Amino acid sequence: MFDIERWQEIFETIRKNKLRTFLTGLSVASGIFILVILLGFGQGMQNGIAQEFEDDASNRIVVWTQVTTKEFKGLNPGRSIQMRNGDYDHIETRFADQLEGRSARFRVPNAMVNYKKESVGYSVQGIHSGYQQIENQYMSQGRYINYEDHRNVSKVAVISNTIKREIFKNGDDPLNEYLDISGIKFKIVGVYGDRGGEREEERIFIPMSTAQRVFNGSDRVNNLYYTLKPVENLDQAVAESMKFSNDMKRYLQEVHTVAPDDDSAINVFNTLEEVKRFFNLISGIKMFFWFVGICTIIAGVVGVSNIMLIVVKERTREIGVRKALGAKPWSIVGMILHEAIFVTAISGFAGLIFSMGLLEVFGPYIEVDYILNPSVNFNVALSTVFVLIFAGAVAGFFPAWRAANIHVIDALRDE
């Protein structure tokens, strides 16, 4: 039942102690504000990391080779390891049930690219058709390199949006035009874009077989690229991806006579392992943010408790009079609790509204390294406020219970 007299008492007490009430409320509001902002930036970090890995396929596995650093089976260290088409074909066959995307890559050495009288300095790379999915590329015009191009050793090329803008400055259609690559004509069949940005668009792609045969690549391969079929959860995906990486590396070490503990000769980069590591780091940071925010809230709740103790002390004589006139202990408790809950609730919701408003207004415009659109789940933030109100009630209960148990004679004697 709504008791207007009690609310009048609460507002009268607040009016008499404006500064004290304001500072107490400020400490509570700042606790919620800090917690929500910290949680928002924690989510922003997760969004930023997720976007970084969205630039390429999230389960991408890349293999490259260098030189051996250890003696093995009578072979001296310092040998250059060169992967071949046979390595790619064997892995593709052996792990066919696990693979979703696959491609080898051969970088054409010292390629000179010309269009009519204009020369451009871009990398030329031979790839298989699966490279588009692995690099998360999209087609702006035409088509990508396909299996028939590879099988027929076709002299076709796919250029990027960046290269198109540089070469075809007048907005001409590049399809079916010819590029001169080291003296050999290649027909442009497509224009691609890369979600990784312009830094990923400084490459011209041609069929792998064409790159190897026309540019004296023999059967050499510079890199192997793979993606695995999706599974139910991240932990399972990481486990299967790591097993595939280890099995593939072990096979390549055996074929190329590399010591099992030589970590330099054959290198495998597993994107999922990096994703897992970053997400674990972010989870740790979020836990730290929760810890800092909760400690700040506890400080505010302690402030509420202290203020209620002061209120009880100041109103000891009044409480004695009430009890002498027949006031029940629980009515005394309710009087003190109402004030504690009111101050905590108003302050908590003020901190929540202010912090959520800031994130809503400015969050979408925050795009710094590894932080994107800081935000927080409203239900989580609202639940935190209700927990805070409950904590405020607990903080106010003990001073209220002390007030309810004051002996009438001692209260009336209080100066």
Your description of this structure?
A six-stranded mixed beta sheet has the order 11-6-3-13-1-14. Strands 4, 5, 7, 8, 9 and 10 form a six-stranded mixed beta sheet that branches. Strands 2-12 form a two-stranded antiparallel sheet. The mean pLDDT is 82. The chain starts with a helix and ends with a helix. α2 packs across α11 and α9 runs antiparallel to α11 (329-362). It has 13 helices and 16 strands. The chain has 415 residues and is α+β, with helices and mostly antiparallel strands. GO terms for molecular function: transmembrane transporter activity. One of its GO terms (cellular component) is plasma membrane. This is FtsX-like permease family protein. It is a multi-pass membrane protein.
Count of distinct structural domains = 2
**What's the overall average pLDDT, rounded?**
82
Largest sheet: 6 strands, mixed
Strand content: 15-25%
Number of helices in the DSSP assignment: 13
